[in-house]
Amino acid sequence: MMNSSLTTHERRQRIVDLLRQQSGIKATELAKLLEVSEGTIRNDLRTLQKKGQLKRVRGGAVLQEDYQIRNPEFAARARINAVAKQRIARWAADLVEDGDAILLDASTTVFHMVPWLQQRRNLTIVTNCIETGLALSQNSDHTVILIGGVLRADGLSVVGHLGERTLDELNIKTAFVSCSGFSVEAGLTEVDIQDTPVKRKMLQSAKEVVALIDSGKFGRVDLTPFAGVSQISHIFTDTDIAPEFVEQLRSTSIPLSICSENTMSPVTAPRDATNHYRIGFANLCDQMPFAIDVRRGLEQVARQANNVELIVSDNQLNGEVALKVADRLLTKDLDLIIEFQVDHDMGTIIMDKFRQAHIPVIAVDIPMVGATFFGADNYRAGYLAGRALGEWIKDRWHGQFDRLIMLKESRAGTLTHARMHGQLMGVQEIVGQMPERKIIRLDGGVTLENSEAQMLDLLESLPDLHRLAVISLNDDVALGALAAARSLGREEDLAVVGQGADRKGRQEIRRPGSRMVGSTAYWPERYGEMLLELTYKILGREVVPPAVHVDHIFINAQNVDDFYPDDQPD
Could you write out the DSSP letters of every residue in 135-185? Predict the structure, then answer.
């Protein structure tokens, strides 16, 4: 028997490992081996299938084989500088949001974006690459449009004027392209003249053009150009780029991002700029809407400031990864570090490293002893949501409920306590003091997947209770609770409040009949501006308070369009 104390991530990894050892396995067998309910296993299998790691079959699952490149020539090209291409593609793909219309050329570097794009939802993907189209078509969430035209003799791509006419009728948000050579003088160039007409048209149909260029292509000028420097919105490359090319690009207006495994360093300012600062930002997780909005806001203000070089890393919601990221940032000659990570105990170790290096630190949303805190007023934010939930219970359930479910995250230390305690106090202020027997505390983690798994188990154990109030650490956790209830046909049994009011949370709040009462707004899209202002004060040796809090407002269906008019559905 397996240890039932495995985390959700560990359990799902174990499922994949078991499938690698045998051709298939039954859900009932997995439940016994892992000492969890069949409902939890079904949720695990759904999540792993969405991620493309397995295929569900009747009664169980089989391993999903990775997409195999059919064309041997394309496969051989994809293996050249594969590690560099994968790192470039991983960070470039982060620019893509759910629902985007994007264009991908027939390069192998762009092909390496496929695994990351499979994690997005409802993309419209236009491409002239046969392999890219086939790979992405495996995700039924996406719409893949293959540009028409003449199929090249090698079977790799489509070229010709028919494809160009197709592009005339499309409005693309972002085109992702590569090249065989690049220089500041010549721009993007190709060795094959057949490729350039379609590539030129691709760029004309897109609002932004992102170039994925591994370091070996810099300084090389090939037969035919297809884009000048002025047409490029952003360049991604790898850490082997020669310093002289970095300095050349500093003199242009093109954002350059240098990509390693877990770190992306945008080059945004000349080295000799007055008061030039190198700032490290270790983000919570680049798969969560809230954290993505924080990072994008910070990147935007850093570009606008023109005297800040921002080195971005991904802590991946993992304390061990955060520690490795911290060690890597310590090699970057930084003036200040902005740390956003969830593990309270690991934060103490990380903070000690930064303190020994005499680097000032700003801790985002999760306190670290010795760092300047920035972000949520956690008790106040929780209290607002708790009161709103209490009012909902009073109005809809006449003040009566069966259980209050608290979805917390044990790793986050004082963050969990303050935010969750505020919600509990807010609810009780409206519905009255509740006995301990009516409170259920679960470790819902910080992700939708973990919360959904925990709630599935709980709901299956409470089949006769139909008034379940839920408070949560963030919007992802709140959405996971709702997803679990929907999968069991019990959404009407829940009333849920979130924390953050991020993009997905607001989308749910707008949904007619949603059981998400609302969410406390933290304004992650505004964090960047406030973080940079605080950074300047610290580096300018101004006296700053130990904690700088954002203002909070509870967002619900009645006011969401007032505060977020720009993201209303068309």
Answer: HHTTSTTSEEEEPPSEEPTTSSBEESHHHHHHHHT--EEEEEE--SEEETT
